[in-house]
Design a protein that fits this description.
By secondary structure, this protein is mainly α. It has two domains: 154 residues, no CATH class; 35 residues. The protein is built from seven helices and no strands.
């Protein structure tokens, strides 16, 4: 399936990205306009007191979270994550292409240095749609996590940066694993054709 989608280049990533962004924006629009963020279990006097406290900035973050609708917040974070995932997907495709081109030129330079011959110019393979979706998913999770921290009023650049570094390292580990599997399979095929 990846080979069939690879013929279209950017289009599958662009289409899926636009679709996810549209779904996420529609969900955000619906949540903001139709779902009440304050818990429906409050009486009228409690509700008015909450509104007055919010307007006067008397409530702390934990008090606001106690009276908020937890399902609405969870749906909001999912919708934000889906929107961010859709918006970043075409950019993730281009970053993958650029990294593959860099890796190919690096390998060609190593071949030229060891053998003294110029390697034939190779074209980078199109980035897999599943890899692009996975990387976009990491970005969506990171954005939703940062939004959750902001809702709790505990957002800090250090925490956001640390989580971003962890997610990038996790993605690098997954990419290294897939590269080693690809090289193992290609070396087996080479050995079989030589035998």
């Amino acid at each position: 399936m990846n080979r069939r989608l690879a013929r279209f280049g950017l289009l599958p990533s662009l289409f899926v990205g636009i679709l996810l962004a549209a779904i996420g924006l529609w969900a955000l629009n619906w949540l903001v306009n139709e779902v009440w963020p304050i818990s429906p279990n409050l009486t009228n006097s409690q509700y008015l007191e909450v509104q007055r406290g919010i307007a006067e900035d008397r409530f702390s973050a934990d008090t606001l979270l106690r009276v908020s609708n937890g399902e609405a917040i969870a749906l909001f974070l999912v919708a934000v994550g889906i929107t961010a995932m859709g918006l970043i997907m075409p950019l993730a495709y281009f970053i993958n292409r650029r990294v593959q081109l860099w890796l190919l030129t690096r390998e060609d330079k190593q071949i030229q240095a060891t053998t003294g011959r110029t390697a034939p110019r190779r074209k980078p393979a199109p980035a897999s749609l599943l890899v692009t979706m996975r990387q976009s998913l990491w970005f969506g999770i990171w954005v939703a996590f940062c939004m959750w921290l902001q809702i709790n009023r505990t957002f800090g650049l250090a925490v956001a940066g640390l989580v971003a570094i962890v997610l990038v390292l996790l993605e690098l580990l997954l990419m290294m694993r897939s590269l080693s599997v690809q090289r193992t399979v290609s070396s087996r095929r080479t050995r079989q054709t030589q035998a």
